[in-house]
Amino acid sequence: MRCFRRGLGAVLLAAAIGISFPGHASQDTPKSAPAADLSGLHAFDALVGTWTAHHRRLKERLTGCTEWEEFGGTFDFRLLMNGHANVDDSVFDMPEGRVHGVGLSAYDARTGQWAIWGLDGRNPAGRLDPPLKGRFAKGVGTFYADDTLRGRPIRVRVIWSNITPTSARWEQAFSPDGGKTWETNWVTGFRRTP
Question: CA 47 → CA 17, 36, 183, distances in Å?
């Protein structure tokens, strides 16, 4: 086996396979990589499978509206990449008609956080929602993102809680003032399909 010197060829090869040469590290004293944080990796595992969903949503958001509408739906959830990612396929039987949505989540072992993106079936070629980022603590996952509503900046918060083999709860809230006050605008209860 040939030994490589740290010439241009070795640097290009290392870059191609993902190895970096830190400025002052040597082979005798390599810099250690941060330990992976896998504490929240399996937080969503109990959701694998098919669920029925009961949605309760404010008719208007951040307008002072207090009128809620309720509708059903389904939720199919599966793990990807050995649990480091997951995808859900949702059907919402909204009053205005059936809508599909997809959620994609990925776990970052460097930070111990999940990132969650949503794709709205009413405009599938539009844009992905900004990623919600956060983690689980004591069985409750709290995730935040910055977004806009009617052209104004808002803060979005999603909370996953009560995740068991047979039930789960999802809640969404918006803040118009950077997180000082929150309006809960959507709550979903999940029951596993028998």
Answer: 35, 24, 26
